[in-house]
Amino acid sequence: MENQGDQQVFKRTLKLHHLTLFGLAYLAPMIVYGIYGVISETTHGVESGAYLASLVAMFFTALSYCHMVKAFPVAGSAYTYTGKSISPHLGFMVGWAVMLDYVFIPMAIWLIGASYFNAAFPSIPSWAFVLGFIFVTTSINIIGIKIGAQVNVVMVLLQLLVIGAFIAFSVKAVMHGIGTGTMLSISPFYNKHVPFGFVMAGASIACYSFLGFDAVSTFVEEAVDPLKNIPRAILLTTVIGGLIFIVATYTTHMAHPGYVYKDAGNAAFEIAKQVAPPIFGTIFLIGMIIAQFASGISAQASGARLMYAMGRDNVLPKKIFGVLSNKFNTPINNIIITGVIALLALKLTVATSTSFINFGAFTAFAFVNISVIVHYFIKGKRRSFKDTILFLIFPMIGASFCFLLLTNLDKAALTLGCIWATFGLIYLIFLTKGFKVSPPEMAAGSNNIITTDVESKIKIEQ
User: Fold this and answer.
1) What value does the mean pLDDT take over residues 273-301?
2) What is the distance between the alpha carbons of residues 276 and 255, in angstroms, rounded to a whole number?
3) Under a CB-based contact definition with an 8 Å cutoff, are residues 207 and 27 in contact?
4) b/e sequence 152-187, b meaning 16+ C-beta within 10 Å
């Protein structure tokens, strides 16, 4: 750990491949098979179309994250970008909403992982596996981000191998007359008999697979050459993940063009048994468990860093949330807190926990796009033809898609999200003494020198 005055700061150890692998690990590429059946039923077989729509929305949003991380290269992500570019009060509310994503997503991840473990070892109760996930991932994240990065390299590669094998078996099956019997078709992308609303409802679910590309921005204070590597990692994570999801759903659809399954939650496992040798079923199960484990490490790490940013800024109690471990240089209190919150998984279902997540994610994504417009186009007056495209048109497209996906969430998700936002508003009123004062100023980070001129080069002290 480094110190500048009385301020604790992170060490810069993460390179481009570390950051990209963290993003991909958070995405957990194998999750495309975990929710394949649900998306297939929702879209009536237009799975790849749903993923293509979600990729478009996430790509434009990823571009906006790239712009904002260059303007404000500090931990905090959507919370920081909205607060500094639009309003500290609104920034607080976005940060409060995005905590549903960063803090509660480990719970959903560990619930899914525990269910697969339970399928493999039915004699052991699911709660035991949930506790195991919490203990192991919390320990890894406390020890240090470098250890987590090394673990993620192995886990992501294993996932990609399993996905590659599933795709190969699906293609082989189609070539032997199973499924459609042909590899060329637009049916996974478009079906004139399927209403567009079904596809967008599927896209809202499919976006769950992309959650994590934005988490890369929370490691900006630990990244080597962050102004270059963070934006690259964000885009690489989004595009690579999106292509994997589209190819995986396309080949799976071609091997099994229907959308009716015995159990939608295990649809991909059902298809795997049809197109692959029996041994692959075990390999597939192991791959799903590895995916959840890797994603849990990244999700917990990024959630802890969001709370650290808010704690350092005194938005949350600094003595609890805004400190780093002297020994490990990690936000140990926040890591433990996310682990404790995840104990709620013992009483909740995957559906309930993901309802929180989607509301927070789409809210954050929408306001990051809006932040680009305000910071660059309105305040920065970047209005040349190129800048208008980059800082007005593209983020407007991204924000529009995010709001459309937000409105396509089910009523339970919207209700839970509004209740959470209400609690946040009450806390904000208390924090600002009835809006008479501004929320605590969001710090730039002592290891960053940030200029207000958007044309100036941002110097990062290494």
Assistant:
1) 82
2) 11
3) no
4) beebbebbbebbebbbebbeebbeeeebbeeeeeeb
Number of domains in the chain: 1
- pLDDT over 70 at 10, yes or no: no
124: Cα within 13 Å, side-chain hemisphere: 14
Q: How far apart are CA 213 and CA 300, in angstroms?
A: 14
Strand partners, 460: 448
Contact 439, 315 (CB under 8 A): yes
Tell me the two tokens of residue 106.
Answer: 């480990």
User: Is 308:445 a contact under the CB 8 Å cutoff?
Assistant: no
Find the helix packing angle between 226-255 and 36-43, rounded to 10°. 70
Of residues 318 and 108, more confidently modeled: 318
Range list of H helices, 408-455: 411-431
Q: Give the DSSP per-residue string, 357-378.
A: HHHHHHHHHHHHHHHHIIIIII
**What is the spatial distance between Cα 273 and Cα 246, in angstroms, rounded to a whole number?**
21
- Which CATH number do you get for residue 10? 1.20.1740.10
Of 24-33, 83-92, 236-245, give the lowest mean pLDDT range. 24-33
- pLDDT score of 443: 44
| Overall average pLDDT of the 376-403 stretch | 94
Q: CA 441 → CA 73, 79, 241, distances in Å?
A: 16, 12, 35
Q: Are 383 and 430 in contact (CB under 8 A)?
A: no
Q: Where are the alpha helices (DSSP H) in 7-75?
A: 16-27, 31-34, 36-43, 47-71
Per the structure, the complete domain to which residue 434 belongs is given by 2-460
- DSSP H or E segment with residue 268: helix 267-275
- Strand 2-4 and strand 7-9: the pairing is antiparallel
Q: Quick one: pLDDT at residue 26?
A: 73
Q: How confident is the model at residue 121 (pLDDT cuts 50, 70, 90)?
A: confident
SS3 73: coil
pLDDT at 444 over 70: no
- Give the whole-angstrom CA distance, residue 163 versus residue 32: 9
Distance CA 175, CA 169 (A): 10
Reported pTM? 0.76
Check pLDDT > 70 for residue 452: no
Give 236's pLDDT tier (boundaries 50, 70, 90): very high
Query: 3-class DSSP state for residue 8?
Result: strand
**What are the CA-CA distances from residue 292 to residues 25, 27, 113, 159, 358 (Å)?**
9, 9, 5, 10, 18
Region 333-346: what's the mean pLDDT? 86
Closest CA to 34 of 194, 348, 303, 271: 271
